[in-house]
Amino acid sequence: MSDTAVTKDAVAAPADVALVAALAGRSIVLVGMMGAGKSSVGRRLAARLCIPFVDADAEIELAANMSISDIFATKGEPYFRNGEARVIARLLEQGPQVLATGGGAFMNPDTRALIRAKGISVWLRAELDVLLKRIKRRSDRPLLKTGEPAETLSTLMAQRNPVYAEADLTVQSREVAHDSIVDDIIAGLSALLRGRDGSGTEIKP
Fold first, then answer.
1. pLDDT value at position 148?
2. How much is the pLDDT for 3?
3. How far apart are CA 143 and CA 121, in angstroms?
4. Phi, psi (rounded to 5 degrees) for 133
5. Which one, of 44, 20, 25, lies nearest residue 189 by Cα?
6. Pairing of strands 201-203, 119-125
7. What is the spatial distance between Cα 118 and Cα 23, in angstroms, rounded to a whole number?
8. How far apart are CA 117 and CA 126, in angstroms?
9. Three-state DSSP class for residue 45
C-alpha cells in the first residue's frame, strides 16, 4: 500500500514535473544504512514530486502479517531476505514512485540488478555518529539487538558501504532539515537524468 504523502491540492513545480517525466516510469530507490533517513526523507521527496511514497519494510510486514522483528525471530534472516527480494521486485513494477528499502536489500545482487533496470538508486550516506544518534530512538532493529550496537553497526557499514557506493547517486545524510536533503537529491537526479554526470554522481554538502 503506497503512501502518496501529497495533499489534495499539491502541485509540483515545473522543474520537478520535468524530473518525474524524465524518470519515464522508473522508481527513485533510496538505499543505505538503517537510520540514514530513507523513510523520513523519502516521504518529503515524494511529496515534493507529487508521486507515491512506498516503504518496502512496511510492505513486507503487510505481506507477512507480522513485524520484521518477529519475522527475524521466528523465521530467520534468510527467510526475511527472500521475502524482501520478492516484495521489492513487485514494487519496482509500480513506478514512478519513491521507494525506501531496508538496509540489507541492496546487498542482494538480483535486487541491485532489478533496481538498475527499473529505477534510479540513491544512497543516503551517513556517518556512524549520526546513525547511532538516530537509531537510539528506536528499539526495533533486529540486527542491532546485540551487546555492542555501535560495534555491530560499524561492522555492517564496512561490509555494506562498498556495495551502496554502486548506487547511481550518493547524497550525504546529515543533521540538517530533511528538506535540505531533498534539495540535494533533486539536484543530483536532475543532473544525472540530463546526462551531465553519468552514474556514480556524488552530492556533498
1. 75
2. 58
3. 23
4. -60, -40
5. 20
6. unpaired
7. 10
8. 26
9. helix
Residue 123 CB neighbour total at 10 angstroms? 27
Q: Which of 62, 76, 30 is nearest to 181 (CA)?
A: 30
Element holding 79 (H helix, E strand): helix 77-91
pLDDT (tens place) for every residue of the chain, 205 residues total: 455 444 445 677 899 999 999 999 999 999 999 889 999 999 999 999 999 999 999 999 999 999 998 998 899 989 999 999 999 999 999 989 999 999 999 999 999 999 999 999 999 999 998 988 877 755 555 555 556 778 888 999 999 999 999 999 999 998 888 899 999 999 999 999 987 444 455 554 4
Domains and CATH numbers, the chain: 14-203 (3.40.50.300)
Cell, residue 16: 520537478
DSSP state of 174: -
End-to-end CA distance of the chain: 33
Look at the alpha carbons of 146, 79, 61, 94 in this order and tell me if their dihedral is positive or negative.
positive
Q: Strands 119-125, 53-55: parallel, antiparallel or unpaired by DSSP?
A: unpaired
Amino acid at 76: G
Phi, psi of 2 (to 5 degrees): -85, 155
Q: How far is CA 86 from the centre of its chain?
A: 16
Asked whether the beta carbons of 100 and 32 are under 8 A apart, the reply is: no
C-alpha dihedral, 106 to 110 to 116 to 119, nearest 10°:
-70
| Beta-strand relationship, 27-31 and 98-100 | parallel
Cα–Cα distance for residue pair 144/149, rounded to 1 Å: 5
